[in-house]
Each structure stands twice: as C-alpha cells, then as structure tokens.
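Bench notes, afternoon.
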Amino acid sequence: MENIEFLAKQVVEGFIIGLHKSPFHGFSVEFAEHRLYNIGDNLKHIDWKVYGRSDKLFIKKYEEETNLRCQLVIDTSSSMFFPKESAKPNKLQFSALASASILTILKKQLDAAGISLFDESITLHTHRKSNTVHYKMLTTQLENLLKAENHQKSTQAANVLHQIAENIHKRSLVIIFSDMLDRVSDQAELFDALQHLKYNKHEVILFHVQDGKYEVDFDFENRPYEFIDMESGEKLRMNSTQLKQTYVEKMAQYREQLSLKCGQYGIDIIDANINEGYDKVLMSYLIKRNKML
C-alpha cells in the first residue's frame, strides 16, 4: 500500500473511459449559442421558448466537452476502519485504493477531480481541478487514509451529502464510497440527501462498502463474542447465534431499501464487498455499465 499510484495504474483504464460514455450527458454536452433555423434541421433542437417570445425559429447549438468533472466522496467515520487488525485492507483502505485507481486515470485523461472526506462533518472538500499539483495533493490525501487510525468519529452522512450537493455548482459525476451505516432514525434523511444530489443534476455512483462475510452474512463462529460499536464504543456480550437471524434480516431489509431508493433516484449502487478486492469490484461495475450504454 506504500505506493498508491503504482497500485492504481494496475486497474484497467476502461473504467473511466466507460464513465465518459455516460447516458446522462449532463457533464459532456453544454449549450453554446442559438442560430436561425434552416430547412432540414432537426426539429428536436428548436428552442420553443425563444419561438414563443420572438415568433422566430432558432436552433440550439451545443459544444462537446471531452473532460469530466468528478468529485470523489469518501466516508472516513470509525465504522470504515472495520475489520481491525486484518491482513486485508479495511473498508477505508479499500475506498482509498479504489479512489486512487479512478484518480490516476482521470489525471491521464486531463479530467478535473476533487475529493470530499467526511465523518460527523466534512473534514476536507477540494474543488475539481486538472493540474498536476492538484492531483499530487489529492494522491497525498488518499495515501494518508491508508495510514489513518480510528479516531472515534460517528457518521452524519445525511447532513454531509446535503452540504456537498450545495457546494458542487456545476454538473458533475459524484462517486461515493461509504458503508452507509448512519443512525436508523436518519434513514429517511439519508435518502433525501441522495435525492438532493440527483435534483442538482449530478450523476451519482454509490459504492456501498461492506465486509460481506461479517457485516452482511454475520458469519461468526458459534461461540460467545464481545461485539464493540466502533463509533460509540458500546459493548455487547453474546453468543453469535443469538444475534445472527435478527441481524441478517435487518441488514438485508436495509440493503434492499437502499437499493430501491437508489433505483428510484437513478443512482448506480454497487455492492462493494471488500473481500473481493477493489480492482475486481471496479471491473465488475465497468462490465455492467458498458452493457447499459
């Protein structure tokens, strides 16, 4: 993990190339000017509002933008440090490595990129730029995440995503890495925050980062454990089998609800199981996306 740029270059460049083929076109086609309508022009490009005011037919001209605007949003709350003391990357390290892969290719294609880090509040929010110095700073921030230690911070994703939606003024691609483990009482607010990003015309991709073995399937040995909430420090001593059925049902219910809401809002949600490796998760999403284009 020491050379994050070297690791990032090993992920296929087709991932970002696929993002440039977005069906949303919000950041790839911009209005340029009007010109008078000529016989044979496509009627779908007529500006009917201008016609209503002037009684003259004008065509809307567009200019293609080859560059992408991308904001990488990473959850750095305490729950992202799971699992502790493991040979494999934890959820935060997984997110940093995946983000670095995306960032490396964005840099090569001269796209503008920025990073937002959050836990209880936004701890870093950079604007989207494409110069070399800016990219070096972003890479350094991701490298710091690989070495970060748990700082006992809870998650306030709903409030943060609302702020980020307001702070990004131009249509952009917003890629979120989070376990989405906010308070149960805040679920409705969390869904509203995701909808806010879409309402502001951003394309949103959510990588739902979890440990599939323990956090989804609750695959613990049949013996007593002391479970510790990584954000609050609350402890619970119990045999794993006493918790498993209820936990698995509640987690499945939440994941289904999150998936349904993202589907309603037109948000791509990716099941990012850290046990599969960040490169495989990115590749799987690329294959799925290319089939949709």
